[in-house]
């Protein structure tokens, strides 16, 4: 048995004993594996599992997803973030059903679909069809970097290519899907970022970083000098006879296609003049009595820090335009619309109180 074969067999043996009981591992259906992979692209398993179960319950197959609306899919996705993933899934479903196709299980067809890159196509095809494809996520990068003591940064082309080449050579002749999942699990719960279980590691005798005791310096990753943008978003709570005014976000920005309250973005605090201007653009006629800040909160995204201010608007007169970007929604129906997580959280509090 070669070292490569020994490595894959040890990882598979570890997996047999330590495999996590996850719902998508009970199937080889490409559609369900696709749903799990897309959800887990930017989401931890602990959070993603319930979303997966709910998504499959709501849309059990490709046809049911294709018949849905954007609003319903986004509502199911609400709170997961990176909402373009859900839109891509809906569009892919509609396209495949229109072409009278089932969801593909091979790499060459999968890679053509929007929102599916090399990693996701490799994962689905290896799990569902046992295609010989190496799957590289952060966990795999960490394991391979340590075992082979790779000093090339994993977030640069040279490091990525080197690890992909090694990982491909390590693939077993059969059970490739199980092996790929095993290697990812191994990195996630055994060869962890901090406090890896080196003393009881089945591959420690093969691990170069363990031998020279530089585990904590692998993998190498160059830090990016990025400064997070801070934004101030002022949301106007405008209600009328048990109805709330909301609008859809259409611009190419965060939370595109989700709903929100009328919003004013400012560099600093909000002024009376800005409230007047905003109401004038939204309504045919109005008379502002008061505006009061009733909640301030912060929300952190991967690339932005958001300061959110919720203002209670009181008017003595409010006349709608014939054609408006606003939707007038009864309080009891507001929860049917998909909102960004911090707005949804506030509305839950506001509509209850």
State the main characteristics.
353 residues; alpha+beta; Endonuclease III, domain 1; Nucleoside Triphosphate Pyrophosphohydrolase; 4-stranded mixed beta sheet; 3-stranded antiparallel beta sheet; 14 helices; elongated
CATH topology of the largest domain: Endonuclease III, domain 1
Q: Which strand order spans the largest sheet, edge to edge or round the barrel?
A: 4-1-6-5
Give the integer mean of the pLDDT values: 95
Taken in chain order, the helices and strands follow as: HHHHHHHHHHHHEEEEHEEEH
Number of domains: 2
**By CATH's scheme, which homologous superfamily of the largest domain applies?**
Hypothetical protein, domain 2
Question: What features would you describe in this structure?
Answer:
- The chain is an alpha+beta fold and 353 residues long.
- The chain folds into 2 domains: 3-217, Hypothetical protein, domain 2 (Endonuclease III, domain 1, Orthogonal Bundle); 229-352, Alpha-Beta Complex (Nucleoside Triphosphate Pyrophosphohydrolase).
- Helix content is 42%, strand content 17%.
- It contains 14 helices and 7 strands.
- It has helices spanning 3-18, 30-39, 45-58, 62-66, 70-77, 84-98, 107-110, 118-129, 138-147, 157-170, 176-189, 208-212, 272-282, 341-352, and strands at 229-237, 243-248, 259-260, 263-266, 283-300, 304-320, 326-330.
- The protein has a 4-stranded mixed beta sheet with strand order 4-1-6-5. A 3-stranded antiparallel beta sheet has the order 3-2-7, with no helix packed on it.
- A hairpin with a 3-residue loop joins β5 (283-300) and β6 (304-320).
- α2 packs antiparallel against α8 (118-129), α8 crosses α11 and α9 (138-147) packs across α10 (157-170).
- The radius of gyration is 25 Å and the shape is elongated.
- It starts with a helix and ends with a helix.
- The model has no long low-confidence stretch (mean pLDDT 95).
């Amino acid at each position: 048995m070669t070292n490569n074969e020994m490595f894959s067999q040890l990882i598979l043996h570890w997996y047999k004993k330590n495999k996590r009981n996850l719902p998508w591992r009970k199937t080889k259906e490409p559609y369900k594996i696709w749903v799990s992979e897309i959800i887990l692209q930017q989401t931890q398993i602990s959070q993603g599992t319930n979303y997966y179960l709910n998504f499959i319950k709501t849309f059990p197959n490709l046809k049911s997803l294709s018949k849905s609306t954007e609003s319903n899919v986004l509502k199911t996705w609400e709170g997961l973030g990176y909402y373009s993933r859900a839109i891509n899934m809906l569009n892919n479903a509609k396209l495949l059903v229109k072409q009278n196709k089932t969801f593909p299980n091979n790499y060459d067809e999968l890679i053509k679909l929007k929102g599916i890159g090399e990693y996701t196509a490799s994962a689905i095809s290896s799990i569902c069809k046992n295609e010989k494809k190496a799957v590289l996520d952060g966990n795999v990068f960490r394991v391979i970097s340590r075992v082979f003591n790779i000093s090339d940064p994993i977030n640069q082309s040279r490091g990525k290519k080197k690890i992909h080449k090694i990982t491909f050579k390590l693939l077993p002749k059969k059970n490739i899907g199980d092996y790929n999942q095993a290697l990812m699990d191994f990195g996630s719960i055994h060869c962890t970022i901090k406090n890896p279980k080196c003393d009881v590691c089945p591959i420690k005798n093969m691990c170069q970083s363990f031998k020279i005791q530089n585990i904590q310096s692998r993998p190498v990753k160059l830090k990016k000098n990025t400064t997070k943008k801070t934004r101030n978003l002022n949301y106007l709570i405008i209600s009328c006879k048990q109805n709330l005014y909301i609008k859809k976000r259409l611009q190419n920005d965060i939370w595109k296609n989700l709903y929100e309250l009328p919003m004013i973005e400012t560099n600093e605090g909000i002024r009376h003049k800005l409230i007047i201007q905003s109401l004038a653009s939204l309504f045919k006629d109005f008379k502002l009595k008061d505006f009061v800040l009733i909640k301030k909160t912060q929300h952190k995204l991967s690339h932005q820090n958001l300061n959110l201010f919720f203002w209670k608007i009181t008017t003595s007169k409010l006349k709608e335009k014939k054609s408006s970007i606003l939707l007038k929604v009864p309080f009891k129906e507001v929860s049917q619309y998909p909102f960004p997580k911090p707005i949804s959280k506030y509305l839950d509090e506001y509509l209850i109180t």
